[in-house]
Amino acid sequence: MKYDLNDADVREALEHAFFNSWSQETLRRGDKKEWDPRNPARHQCYISSAVVYGLTGALVYVCPVIDKKTGKPTRLLHCYNSTSENFQEEFFDVTRSQFPFLTYRSDYSKAKLEKNPKQMKRKIGKRFDILFKKVKCNLERILRQG
């Protein structure tokens, strides 16, 4: 079953489902030492955008991350989803909450479409399955409760 990302109830439920699903277990090995339960979205954008794609079919976009102090691009990239080609206005960024805690921001104006989002699942491996199952279970529970 694909969920409709244009449905406001689904979007809100997804936000809560992800927040309750992220963990140190869903981070890449190199990022595990930076796990902070006060900022669970940190370093979760790649895997989360892949899971959103799996649940909704929403397009995946990748954009540069800007240092807020200097205004210059960093080496970091940020991933998010959109239901349309108008990626700057109609987007769903489930991990955007990580940035107020950091000195970075996403530059959505320079986003590029991920050409093969199905490959993301393969790259992520077992962590994808873990997060996908957690999010789907939490999402179904939240939507049932209405």
Question: Would you write up a description of this structure?
Answer:
Helices cover 36% and strands 18% of the residues. It has helices at residues 8-19, 45-56, 117-124, 126-145; strands at 59-67, 73-82, 91-92, 104-106, 112-113. Strands 1, 2, 3, 4 and 5 form a 5-stranded antiparallel β-sheet that branches. α1 crosses α4 (126-145). The longest helix has 20 residues, at 126-145. The radius of gyration is 15 Å and the shape is globular.
Quick overview:
With about 150 residues, this protein is of the alpha+beta class. The protein has helices spanning about 10-20, 45-55, 115-125, 125-145, and strands at about 60-65, 75-80, 90, 105, 110-115.
Topology:
Blueprint: H1 8-19, H2 45-56, E1 59-67, E2 73-82, E3 91-92, E4 104-106, E5 112-113, H3 117-124, H4 126-145
Antiparallel strand pairs: 1-2, 1-4, 1-5, 2-3
Helix pairs in contact: 1-4, 2-3, 2-4
Helical element count?
4
Q: Quickly give the structural class.
A: alpha+beta
Q: How far apart are the first and last residues' alpha carbons, in Å?
A: 18 Å
Domains (count) = 1
Q: What is the alpha-carbon Rg in Å?
A: 15 Å
Low-pLDDT segments? none
Mean pLDDT reading: 92
Number of strands: 5
Shape: globular
How would you characterize the largest beta sheet?
5 strands, antiparallel
Order of helices and strands: HHEEEEEHH
Quaternary structure:
single chain
Helix content: 25-40%
How much of the polypeptide forms β-strand, as a percent range? 15-25%
